Amino acid sequence: MKKGIFLALLLISSIVYSKDPKDCKNYIYGRPIDQIREILEESNLRLGAIKYGILTITDLKKYFEVELRIAKNKLKKIIDNPEKPTFENTIIALEDLDKKIGVAFTYVGNYEAVNYTDYTSEVSLKLEKDYQIFSDLINYDEKLFKRVESVYKDRKKLGLDREDIVLIEDYYDGFVRKGVNLPKAKKARLTQIDLTLKELSNNYSKNLLKHRESIVIGFSEEEMDGIPEDIKAIFKEFASKKGMKQPYGTSAVGTTYRQVFEFANKESTRKKVYEATAVVGSMNGFDNTKIVYQIAKLRKEKAKILGFNSYADFILDDRMIGSRKKAITFLNDLHSETKKFKDQDEEELKKFVETLTGKYHEIAPWDNAYYSRLLKKKFYDFDPNDMKPYLEVNKFLGGVFKLVEDFYGVEIKPVELPKFHPDVMTFAIVDSKTRQQVGLYYLDLYSRETKRGGAWMNSLMDQYKVGDKNYRPHVVNVMNVPKPAGSDPTLLTLDEAETLIHELGHGLHSLFSDVKYRSHAGTSVKWDFVEVPSMTFEKFLYVKKFLKSFATHYKTGKEIPDEMIDKLLKAKSFQAGTGLNIQTTYALLDMAWHTDQFESIKDIKKFEDKLFDRTPWEASVAKGLMSLRFSHLFAGGYGAGYYTYMWSEALASDAFEFFEKHGTLSPEIAMRFRNYILSVGGSVDEWEAYRAFRGQDPDMRAIYRVNGLE
Question: How much is the pLDDT for 299?
Fold first, then answer.
């Protein structure tokens, strides 16, 4: 099975557009399997693009079950093969085993993420459990392991190339790490733990989504004072669609409601939204408290069975950073060094509020974003909202795509392809010289009530090679940008623009993959390296020459003023120390839940108050509990791995400084980045890959310099 990860919150990598779930339930096994197989496997569209809009979720469930039976028979033949174990009849046979069952599994999972229903959730969980059981049939079979071990011992005598040997080592290490040598009873217990964890994570995520959907907040005209007109229009359209008595409204789905914290002039409006949304995951029948404790307890038990002291020890044993001790040292050092900046930022903000209001007082959580925006505007004469007219989505994408084209010698063109939702944009990427297809790119930009929150990238089809044929990847970026009202243009916030370029950075990691095996493709790297390409790419948003290349006012067509860019770049480090300190605290929260420390967490609120160093006044204000809505940790695969963001930020900062030393927008350095990092995926050790690109070890203090803290 694959080394590495599937990005963001999911273990999935494609999508289909289904009929109404009620129709699906009545359509069970209605379409012949040969017809389903033909639709999935024999597409005559560009690069084998999936024929979205034809298959139902039930079709995919059937396909999965049929192909799973076939895969089990193939597995038995591999295990019982009387011939001497070879690279081809054992390792390659295993590598090819799940190519088809993975299709339906990933299609259903991603559909659940972008268009959730109770039915798709039910089917997705069923497939996850079946897939886990099948995986364990492989991982725990001692006879199969002996075949893999035989090839592993002879690997350097077989005349294989580097990628072949890495593949053998990955399979061998995977068997050992997953517990193939354990007694049968312990293996059975691990299977049960994994199945239970999947269900708990699913319930955790479901609670958050349904709780957010259940929250509807109405506003009067007076309460909307200060809210930008484009956001007011979205609120007005929402209220109209919901038949609300108030003229404006929002739910807690997506990010639109957060605009209130930043722009609403009335404190009562900000407080109203805060009190409604801060409780997500902690009440009204959607309480994740028990689930969090259950997950932490089961993860620890799993780690103990596998011979590790804690879940963090188990996870970090297979990361670049190498150990829990190194991770916690890294986090504590970063937390300590950024604490002084956080303290300075807080004191500065309090004094500003005192000057503004005529009284000194603690800043409530619903007031922080509002006053921070005003302080930023005072210091730098810059308001991020001033950038929106210059970040119309089509112009922004044109600028970003042109940067990719200049960097990597490709062309990105819109193409007509079947879509899993009418709003999805589709593009083909072609090599400028050879005219060969590099891959397909799907962009699912807008928030929907049934779409999970956040932003992520998925590989819809992994790159790999068979003989002379190089199967090219299909990639999707999913965002949750509020859809503008009526025919208004989509104007991105600065944060949304940064998120989009970040997720495209992940996409490029998959699109430029050039390896032999799917197990090594694209983002199938160690978890604490996977954010490096995306975090490096997002930093180009703040390069003046790049902004000047595309940013024009969506109404007047005038180029973005140099003065505005200069203000943006100066304001970029505003409260950067606070941001890093808070992120580091989140990572320490993660470590607490995944070490022995979690057993001492009797009261989550008291624990979080102490961890976040809250004053008695801050602790007295009702707050949402981060642990109960932290999907990254409990439903998204980042358990014991949230430090990844800071670790990757340090590496990405070092990489960006290397670009800066060569003129920043350097195609030569970009091609080095592609050849040594993006294209090799997990086929090369991550430290080796980075050193090949950089020519030396990374300077981890670059994180301070790039963020304006040195």
Answer: 98
